[in-house]
Amino acid sequence: MYRKQAFTLIEILVVVVILGILAAIVVTLFGGATEDAAVSTTQTLVRTIQGQVAYQYSSTNQIPDEIDPAWFQSDLDTHPFDSEHDYPVFDNDAAATSDMMHPAAKIIGQGAGANGSFWFNPSNGMVRSRILDQEDDAENISLYNAVNNCNVDSLDQTTN
């Protein structure tokens, strides 16, 4: 008599468990790729904006008072860490002094005048990106340093 072969329930469960383990490994390996891409995009945005400030300075021989979004002709990508806006928002900090290289508020939406995803100091032409709160000061400092290619030691630091 011919008997049809089939998988047992135990065999199917073992295969499902193995696939779950493999999926967990893949997600762990590629999970950081999204944040790395966001950091890289933000670094490019900061360089692009800083380059436009330098261009305006070379054209007029003075640092502009503010960043004008029209300079970019809608070619500027959205800020990866600012989910509230479909476009980059600039905080033109008129109160910033020439020795300020970093905003007092480095996290988007936290602190006075921290509504912009980018901070601009018209006294020295410095542009910095703000970040989303990572819930831990060390992670906030690490992310801020990564997106701005700098090395601040605390979230309160404004000079180098």
A few lines on this structure:
This protein is mainly alpha-helical. 40% of the residues lie in helices and 7% in strands. It has one domain.
Q: Can you give a write-up of this model?
A:
The protein is mainly alpha-helical and about 160 residues long. It has one domain. Helices cover about 40% and strands about 5% of the residues. It has helices at about 10-60, 135-150; strands at about 90, 120, 125-130. Strands 1-2-3 form a three-stranded mixed β-sheet. The longest helix is centred in the N-terminal third of the chain and has 52 residues, at about 10-60. The radius of gyration is 23 Å and the shape is elongated. The relative contact order is 0.14.
The number of domains: 1
Oligomerization state: single chain
Walk across the major sheet and give the strand order.
1-2-3
Kindly state the number of beta strands: 3
| Structural class designation | mainly alpha
The pLDDT mean sits at 86
Order of helices and strands: HEEEH
* Low-pLDDT sequence parts: none
Shape: elongated
Overview features:
mainly alpha; 2 helices; 160 residues; three-stranded mixed beta sheet
What's the topology here?
Blueprint: H1 9-60, E1 90-92, E2 118-121, E3 126-129, H2 137-148
Helix pairs in contact: 1-2
